[in-house]
Prior knowledge:
The structure holds two protein chains of two kinds.
Chain A: E1 11-14, H1 20-30, E2 34-39, H2 63-68, E3 72-76, H3 82-93, E4 97-100, H4 106-109, H5 114-117, E5 125-130, H6 145-152, H7 172-195, E6 200-204, H8 205-210, H9 216-223, E7 225-226, E8 241-243, E9 246-251, H10 258-265, H11 278-283, H12 285-295, H13 301-310, E10 315-318, H14 322-326, H15 329-333, E11 337-342, E12 346-351, E13 356-357, H16 375-386
Parallel strand pairs in A: 1-2, 1-4, 2-3, 4-5, 5-6
Antiparallel strand pairs in A: 8-9, 9-10, 11-12
Helix pairs in contact in A: 1-7
Chain B: E1 16-19, H1 25-35, E2 39-44, H2 75-80, E3 85-88, H3 94-105, E4 109-112, H4 116-121, H5 126-132, E5 137-142, H6 157-163, H7 166-169, H8 185-208, E6 213-217, H9 218-224, H10 227-236, E7 253-257, E8 264-268, H11 272-281, H12 296-301, H13 303-314, H14 319-328, E9 332-335, H15 339-344, H16 346-351, E10 354-358, E11 367-371, E12 375-377, H17 395-402, H18 407-415, H19 434-439, E13 445-446, H20 450-454
Parallel strand pairs in B: 1-2, 1-4, 2-3, 4-5, 5-6
Antiparallel strand pairs in B: 7-8, 8-9, 10-11
Amino acid sequence: MLPPSALDDIKVLDISQGIAGPLCARLLGDFGADVVKVEPPGGEAGRRMPPFFEDDPDPEKSLFFLLCNLNKRGVVLDLEEPEGAALFRALARSADVIVESFQPGYLASLGLDHASLEAENPGLIMTSITPFGQTGPYSHYKGCEIVTYATSGIMAISGTSDREPLKHGGFPGHYESAMNGMLATNIALLARDMTGIGQHVDVSMQEVVTSSLVINQPNYSFAGGVQGRRKPEGGSLGHVTPCADGYFVAQEGGSATWNDIANFFGREELKDERFSNPAQRMLHGHELDEIIKDAVKDRTMAEMFRTASEQFRMLFGIVQTPEDLANCPQLAARDYYQEVDHPVIGKICVPFRLFNLSTGGATCRRPAPLLGQHTAEVLAELGRAAA
Amino acid sequence: MADQQQAPELPLKGLRIIDISNVFSLPYAGGLLADLGAEVIKIEGPARLDVSRGGAFSGVYPDNEPGDDPYNRTSTYNLLNRGKKSLAVDLRRSEGRQILKDLIKVSDVLTENFTPRVMRGWELDYPNAKALNPNLIMVSCSGYGPEGPYSRYPAQATTQEATHGLVHATGYRGDDVPSKAGQSFVDFLATWALVIGTTMALRYRNRFGKGMWVDVAMYQLGCTMVAERILDWQVNGRLAERIGNRHPWLAPQGCYRCAGQDEWCVVSVQDDEEWAALSRTIGQPDLAGDPRFATNAARMQNHDAIDAIISAWMAGVGKFEAMDTLQAAGVRAAAVFDARDMHVDRHAKARGLMETLTFPPERAIGKRAIIGRPWKLSKLPLSARGPGPCFGAHNREILCDLLGYSDGHYQSLAASGVIGSEPTVPRPVVRMSMDDRVRGGRLAYWDPDYKQRLGI
């Protein structure tokens, strides 16, 4: 018997595709919700996303799909056929939340949008996560990670000023949108707990990433300033710098003084007048770069991370790889990875726990469902509920 | 059905949050919770002002004028701390901590982002805080979490992005050196996790009658953003390479220079149909059937050649024209927005992500646009409920009206400097003209007509 958790009374239907919508539904499941993933015959697009287990592009072997669809049961229904739509409508009558990511208007064309479904279930919450939101002139534009990055404003300030704007690696805009989908769903649930009334939640991925630009945005509305990309050259501090076995980033600030930083690098000349304050250091950035690069050329990331953090209280980061993260003792101490047993992939440790709670924290109860694995089970429950 | 005419009650109305957090992550979460109706009391020390009140992480002053109280005027402070009350108390003194303890007893939520040893040292970590208020929800945000080998390591988003794996994933294709994200990336993941945790803890308390501790470590959140790369290494032994703006398994994708100053447009072709549409749109329909480009595998192989073809077309069009033309043909394409576009673009205007804060006349700031929230709820209209509070503005209200301290007690706390209404250690004030900011590389440009464009 699991301890109670915040959402263990909530039923979720996940009809979304790809990363952001499915991951949002999974996060609700992590905190106890009963999540049923409804896929079309053939499976949703997420099953075709690399990386695959042993590089085999089988729809049951996408590791990305596995990650986004933990803690769900899976059914197959064709929403474009009358029978499938009718069964979905029946499921929606007893659902609390539907998560979807179709192009705006698609569900309405099937009579399955929030306005149609809430007539039979006034408490229903529908959370839509789409590239540009449900309204506005771009709402029908097609999106993807780089489109979200470009239109959010973040890409214009990433990379260097002598080159093109640079997207961050991977799919952070999708992950961030999943988190905001869950956040807004929680708010809708709190509101419903007071009123009994559900609502339609409209999450725009463009706006999610824009919302992280808390310096860039008001620079404009307060003084007309428009941030750009950083200059390609500059002091070693605050930038990625090579050392014996990789790269690191050191930053001024926190409780470390400049003297501490000079001592950490072990170079007396860093205490010279020419480096004595931030303006001087910026002016002599090139010389600073050369001294620091030379000082660290035989030092390893692991040693420097430990020494800088423990002895000198410096703000210090090392460029860790996925391998480092897979073997990280800090993540282990936080109970971050969870093992699941997938019917096709077998036992696998997945990056799982976003944050920790003293009670009712995230639990990993199921692997991702096989296509249609629970269709009979879920429809039988529906039949019992109707009887 | 509820009466649609009546504005619905905000879901966190009647809830009191004590917010002793600093910088970006947790202060922003508190601002969003204030939008939802909570009474959020921001506590700072007279000698320990929030970092967003001045210096490198504070943004700019209204019209670049610091004024007499620069610490109340910074742009980023007012965005993050919208709708809060301000109490200035020196928590390093036991009399100050007594005020905090009295507040904990009459509040629902306590939020803090000290390194974990600070609250333990003050005997105000969760077990101790819970003893003061058994149903308390405590929300902590730290770099690495209170346990584990890195627990005591100083952390800031700008260095953590290397450690949590984002830097390794980011960089121009072909460069050996990875690239930084260029902003405090992981702070905002924490903001959202903190609001998720708080709202979930509230629902838990409503259902089961018990508080809890929400323990957010930024590192974990950052690692989660590269989770699929971790799985690829674990299962396939692959360390995915840095590919710049390209897509890991679809082609073509890139960021291309358009006509105009620093104008760029991204394109991402995700299937053969989209490739055919792109080919037609750029006036080269034959490319669709060209064996070098006909399949995704072929396009991955011949990506450089495609980049040259797209670049040639892009050079003759503006970024918005490129976006609209390609999207009309069904091709994923998008202008690279800068901060001005974020405010004045037609979609941005129609959606209204930016909200206008009206400052009281005595603050001489006028009206300013700030980021609202990236989600809309169809039956719960939300808005920021006011600007960031002036330093110590609510000292008397909170101590005398809420906690019932006598006037004599209040006066003695003020006289001994336990509370204050002006900073004793100011934040740095950056006095630099907008033109100098551009020359120094801090800004790409500045727009003297911004007020007119924003209608403020």
